[in-house]
User: What shape does this take?
Amino acid sequence: MGGVPDELWRQILEMGIQNSKLNYKDLCCISISCRRLHRLSAENSLWLLLLSSDFPSPNQQNPNPNNSTSASAKSTYKIKFEREKSRKVAAHRRAVLRKESEVLEFERKIREIENGLRQETEKMRATAAELSNLHKVRQASVALNVWQPEVIRGRQKQIVEQSAVPVESRVHSLEMELKLCRQRISGFDKAYRDEKRRLELAMEQLASMKYHPLRDHKLISSGDKEYKKKRKKLKTSVI
Assistant: This one.
């Protein structure tokens, strides 16, 4: 490496940037390898090439390393990089907030479906109970036409007299209402399954968006340390 002239090293670095083989991370890593590469990697010509490739502008001309305005190409790259990083972080935060609001909306819809399902279930139970009573009234009215002991006949007559509505029309109406309740419950069940599946998918997407390998690794490591401490205390207490 010591026998290679600076001009050749400069061409190697320029070719790597132009062919997208070297980026700003590679250039920073090269700069800490030795003093010579530290000096070469800080030249404006290289950072101007990175500026033109990473942050192109519509009216941008070919970079000129001898231009006086390009004296701080590396600092300009750093400013634009930090600005782009802030923009991406803000965009990621907005995306996370949108996904969180989407999860909350799914949860709200599921609660509404659960309330509707509960109301329809209670309504169906009340309708089924009333329909069962009307069936008893109809059976009692039929039984009055047949000879029965006076005690049983009196009970059957009392059941028929307590009914204040026409039995046949009311039975038909309740049967239709019971069928409608079952259809609505079936629709609520289907809507609940669909919204639950959408909620689970949105929560998975939100978890992947919030995932950070270093932060999650720290949480897992702290949990392992607490588990080891508890295990050590348990061993000492047993001993």
Notes: The chain has a mean pLDDT of 79. The helical segments are 6-18, 24-31, 35-41, 44-54, 73-143, 150-162, 167-210, 213-238. The radius of gyration is 39 Å. DSSP finds eight helices and no strands in the chain.
